[in-house]
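Lab notes, practical 5.
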Amino acid sequence: MRCEWEKLGVLGPIYQLVGRGLSDGEITDELKLTEVTVHSCVAWLLHFLHCRDRAGVVLYASAAPPAKWGLWAA
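Output from the prediction step:
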């Protein structure tokens, strides 16, 4: 089952930006989303990927191959 953020097309871009080491505020500015949305997505990623902290998500995301997501498809 897809989560709400994946349906909105923001989970992938947030995942990629977390992998680049951006903070919630920087992601908010980059994607023009609310900080609550970004924070919620990062929390969901932490839970889904079974990571204890943001650094775990960064390591997980930085090792993943680049992908084209809805907001980034060019």
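Observations recorded by the TA: The two ends are 27 Å apart (CA to CA). The chain has a mean pLDDT of 80.
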